[in-house]
Amino acid sequence: MTTGADLSLTETFPNNANLPLVRRLEAVGFRAWPASSVQYDGSWQVRLTAGHPSNRLNSIVPLDPSDHRDVEIRLAKASRKFEAYGRPAVLRQTPLASPVLIDLIRKQQWASFDETIVMTCDLAHAELPDTLDHLPTHDIGRFVDANLATDGVSSKLKPALAEIINAIKPPSGLFMIEDAQTGPLATVLCVQDNDLAGIMSLSVAKERRREGLGIEILTSALRWARMRSARSAWLQVKATNAPALALYERFGFHEAYRYSYWRLEPSR
Q1: Is the peptide bond before 14 cis (omega within 30 degrees of 0)?
Q2: Domain span at residue 11?
Q3: How confident is the model at residue 2 (pLDDT cuts 50, 70, 90)?
Q4: 232-238 and 196-204 as β-strands: parallel, antiparallel, unpaired?
Q5: How many H helices and E strands in the chain?
Q6: pLDDT at site 16
Q7: Contact 162, 145 (CB under 8 A)
Q8: Which of 101, 95, 106 is nearest to 70 (CA)?
Q9: Higher pLDDT, 1 or 215
Q10: What is the mean pLDDT of residues 241-253?
Q11: Percentage with pLDDT > 90 across the chain
Q12: If you average pLDDT over every residue of the chain, what do you get?
């Protein structure tokens, strides 16, 4: 049997997607990971964040499959905004992107990368493992330090990541597992937007993986969200991240839709 996780990006776009669900998850995703600058061109959202390289914060995001007026002119205009930031244009294709636009970027020799699966879970009825509970911290600086350390990312990104987390408007839980001798072991950010809980930045220190820390910290975040009346949880994970997919499926997460990024490959 072929599952959603086995299908290619082109096979899952756009006919297999529940578009109202996609629109809602895209909206809560924007609020959970806010860009510094957001501009609109019709239904296209142009997201830019000078201090952070994340594609989720720096991409053109079309939000209406029927919006394909003057796509070539508008794409060139949006691309110039990225040039002003000194970075190449990136387009994020979800099931809400117009096929006309995707045909155009294919013809212009844009290349697809970082296929990502958006997953959801019925949190109200999920059976969460009986693990040690961790309470969220209110210390953003400490959480950012821990997240960068467990992710193996440069501490130079601390100001940008702290700014992003400070800009999150919905209630957020910052969870950490630490060792007094060795330091941070695992982190996760849970953003509760009404009845939806978004799982962000889940990270386990490389040398401590496969010890159950991911299960422990994810359980704490989901338990916290459920106590605050969240009924569903969502997250985003790269399609190639088999260990993470296995973890999330264990909690009852299943695929809702996929997205991918596109960029113009430099001429050789």
Answers
A1: yes
A2: 4-116+259-264
A3: very low
A4: parallel
A5: 8, 10
A6: 65
A7: no
A8: 101
A9: 215
A10: 95
A11: 88
A12: 92
Report whether 41 contacts 76 (CB < 8 A): no
Total-model pTM: 0.91
User: Mean pLDDT across the stretch 212-216?
Assistant: 96
Which residue(s) pair with 163 in the sheet?
A: none
| Res. 11 pLDDT band, cuts 50 70 90 | very low
- Based on the fold, state whether residues 166 and 185 are members of the same structural domain: yes
The verdict on 171 and 250 lying in the same domain is yes
Is the pLDDT at 1 greater than 70? The verdict is no
Q: Are residues 136 and 63 in the same domain?
A: no
**AA identity, residue 10:** T
How many of the other CB atoms lie within 10 Å of CB of 244? Answer: 17
Instruction: State the pLDDT at residue 66.
Output: 96
Same domain, 26 and 66: yes
Examine the domain organization and report whether 174 and 151 are in the same domain. yes
Tell me the CATH number at 107.
Answer: 3.40.630
Angstrom CA distances, 23 to 64, 93, 185, 248, 257, stand at 9, 13, 34, 22, 11
188 and 110 in one domain? no
Number of domains the chain contains: 2
